Amino acid sequence: MSSFQRTLSAFVLLLLSNTVHGATFQDDRGVVHTWDNSVKAKIGVEATLGGISLFHMGMQAEQLAAVWGLWGIRGTTFDPENPSAGSNFPELDPGPEEAAFLSSAVNLSPSCYTNPRGCWQVDNITDLIALQDQIDFIVNVDNGYDYSMIDIEAAGFKVIFVDTYFDYHENCRIQNFSAPDRSNCYGRSAIDIARRIEELAVFLGVEVDQDAINQQKQDMCEAATEFTDTMEEAHEKGLRIKVSWLGIGQDEETGESYAELSDYDPIELWFPRTMEELGMPLLHSDDIYDYDEYAAVPASAYFNTCEPGVYNEDCNGETLFPVDFWLFDPRGSRLIDDNLKLLFPDRALLADQWWYVPKNDGPISYKSIAAYLRGITPKIAAAQKLRESTQECTPVDPRDIGHLVLDGTGGLPLNGFVCYNRDLIQTEYLKCPEGSAPVESPAAPSASTPAESPVAPTPTELAPVSSSEAVPTSDGTTMSGAFLMVAAALLVNAAITI
Ligand SMILES: *[C@@H]1O[C@H](CO)[C@@H](O)[C@H](O)[C@H]1NC(C)=O
Ligand SMILES: *[C@@H]1O[C@H](CO)[C@@H](O)[C@H](O)[C@H]1NC(C)=O
């Protein structure tokens, strides 16, 4: 090569390395998005599941164009006007930094963003459309039930969907966000979602601070280790734990109030699934494996040996679920007071053996997983066994999908729970960044994917998180590989013409 050619080739390579950053992200409907991630994409996003999660991955205010929805989890006392005052769910609600991040953006839910009963959508899609030239992507981290996303996509926005319910499978979600055939849908564990959000942050051009993320992962793995040790002790004590939503109903004829539970399978939400994978003795539900419905259980159906309408400590020994510790939805947990204890004198409730579990809201990040596990661990460590329970545990793999299916092929029965087996604990949570394979490892399996997984790994799962500039495309070549071929052709051309 002449020195001119050398200069020219160096120039072409410089040009390429500075301008070519084609990243791809296949979302959980299978839609493939592309973005030059040397540029920081601007997004519109629901505040907690997407917004705060991405903030934990390093997103700064300059990328946040618009937010909607409640800023804390449902039932929160968090006040956006006074973020340093704290709230009732400090593990998952925003702190002053998260609040400053959210308040930097246009608020598209001014009518409800402080309403603890719930707030999920933009008040008026017209307000979002007015921001169209300032928004590169709408990020929808959710369970697929926000149908407004269909309208938002139809209005011309690129919507990136990250599923909080199911692992990606080509035959699970379809493009309109629904999952009509659930036979290929498998519940996600929190770490699966956090990893997807980390990948998404890289795709969106967030300057991910690896040291800060590793610190979060370190904290998470320490919290998870302490948690699983506590679960082993919980099994030794014979504790039984149940997820339920709590409500107060009113008898149509008498007008009297009554307490009502719902029978909810623990595998349906990411934190219960996470905690079962880490050994929590969670009671399973009976007749339903249905993400759309749950069975209502009024007090009359719960207390086996009480007269209907007369519930007290003399007859509260035998109940439909042999619960020693409850995990209630955050909003329902705010109903717990002396009045509720009269309506529902359950032993675990009277002993204040309960905590909250979020119901498809709040951030999902290494940081929030650590905070939640650190919050619940001492509560369970302090809990006592309160009632007889004869049912034995079932020796299945908590990471396996087999025990999740209630179609007669291996689901757990009513009040069944998984035995503690240290060898079967989900080790993805226990791998500390120091001295273990990091999340970027191309061979790292998805956390909730069992050993004999029917779920084929997706191209995104194989993509190294830290180098999405070279994300594999579906035909196996890489973006930067394709550009290098173009570069080589240019150089050959240049050599011929000179
Ligand atoms: C949304 O905003 C537009 C423009 O301000 C207005 O015409 C329309 O009535 C609003 N829609 C609703 C449902 O409030
Ligand atoms: C999504 O598409 C499926 C299949 O075409 C259809 O049955 C379903 O009603 C659609 N859902 C929505 C919310 O449009």
User: In total, how many domains does the architecture comprise?
Assistant: 3
- Percent range of helical residues: 25-40%
For the record, the CATH class of the largest domain is: Alpha Beta
Structural class designation: alpha/beta
Instruction: Round the Cα radius of gyration to an integer and report it.
Output: 25 Å
Instruction: Note poorly predicted spans.
Output: 11-19, 436-498
Total beta strand runs: 13
Report how far the terminal alpha carbons are from each other.
Answer: 11 Å
| CATH architecture annotation name of the largest domain | 3-Layer(aba) Sandwich
The CATH superfamily of the largest domain bears the name Nitrogenase molybdenum iron protein domain
Mean pLDDT comes to 83
- What amount of the residues lies in strands? 5-15%
Strand order of the largest sheet: 5-4-3-6-7
Q: Counting H and I runs of at least 4 residues, what is the number of helices?
A: 15
Note the main sheet: 5 strands, parallel
Please state the overall shape, judged from the principal axes of the Cα atoms.
globular
Helix/strand order = HEEEHEHEHEHEHHEEEHEHEHHHEHHH
Assign the CATH topology of the largest domain. Rossmann fold
Q: Spell out which ligands are present.
A: 2-acetamido-2-deoxy-beta-D-glucopyranose
